Amino acid sequence: MREIHVIGIGAGDPEHLTLQAVRLMRSTDVFFVLDKGEVKSDLTDLRREMLRTHIPEGSYRVVEARDPERDRTAGSAAYSPAVGDWRSARADIYERLIAEELGEDESGAFLVWGDPSLYDSTIAILDEVLARGNVAFAYDVVPGVSSVSALVARHRTGLNRVARPVQITTGRRLAEGFPEGVDDVVVMLDAHQAFRAHTDDDVDIYWGAYLGTPDEILVSGPIAEAAPRIEELRAEARERKGWIMDTYLLRRRP
């Protein structure tokens, strides 16, 4: 039976690869890569560099497909349906790749940025493909260093405080208000810098972009002081690279 590995490759630093990830990569026949276009070509280039570094040349194949576009203009009510449509479009591509590019006794892999269990769709998409019943395969998941882990490590702080909860949420949710009963909040997927609504709060921010890469940017401090600097750096980086991936921790002071 076909076998699929969903391999977390870390937040950007090639040294984030675990020994388990490298071992499975070396036993993989086909690597599936979704191309996000020229603007984000460095994400594809990093994956290829990891393969060249850790796997003997000629022992594997790379199959690329264009990643479908997601409707990023959808409002609150339409957001979940838009994500569902995008996942189904991706499932169409995954199904075709596995059926047409992977032999019955071969293994394939998807190299997932960060950790496959945290704000990534690969597992859900593979489950959708299996539920359709058109192609059979088994799959496993290899954890990776998430952007959250990389963020707090680079800022030399903990994710949580003693006997206190921590919540991971999105910029869209943070825009609705600071979560109740939680003083430590990690925010991902924040395209609109929702932290700006909390500059009057007694909160520190630990922010990072392009974590683990040569372009890494880090800012921390009281949010009222750090927010303008983050906005400036974020705008400059997005203009220079054409895209940005950032994550931050908001921490209420005692």
Please explain how this structure is put together.
This is Precorrin-6A synthase (Deacetylating). Pathway: Cofactor biosynthesis; adenosylcobalamin biosynthesis. Residues 4-226 form the Tetrapyrrole methylase domain. Pfam families: TP_methylase. The chain folds into 2 domains: 2-145, Cobalt-precorrin-4 Transmethylase, domain 1, CATH 3.40.1010; 148-252, Tetrapyrrole methylase, C-terminal domain (Methyltransferase, Cobalt-precorrin-4 Transmethylase, Domain 2, 2-Layer Sandwich), CATH 3.30.950. Helix 3 crosses helix 4 (122-132). The chain is 35% helix and 24% strand. It is globular and about 60 Å long. The protein has helices spanning 19-26, 41-54, 76-101, 122-132, 147-154, 171-174, 223-241; strands at 2-8, 30-35, 61-66, 107-112, 137-142, 166-170, 184-188, 203-209, 217-222, 246-252. The protein is built from 7 helices and 10 strands.
Total number of strands: 10
- CATH fold-level assignment of the largest domain: Cobalt-precorrin-4 Transmethylase, domain 1
**β-sheet strand percentage:** 15-25%
Low-confidence stretches: none
* Shape-level CATH architecture of the largest domain: 3-Layer(aba) Sandwich
Query: What structural category characterises the helix and strand content?
Result: alpha/beta
Provide the CATH top-level class of the largest domain. Answer: Alpha Beta
**Shape by Cα distribution:** globular
Order of helices and strands: EHEHEHEHEHEHEEEHE
How many domains? The number is 2
For the termini, the CA-CA separation is: 55 Å
Strand order of the largest sheet: 3-2-4-1-5
Number of helical regions: 7
**Helical amount:** 25-40%
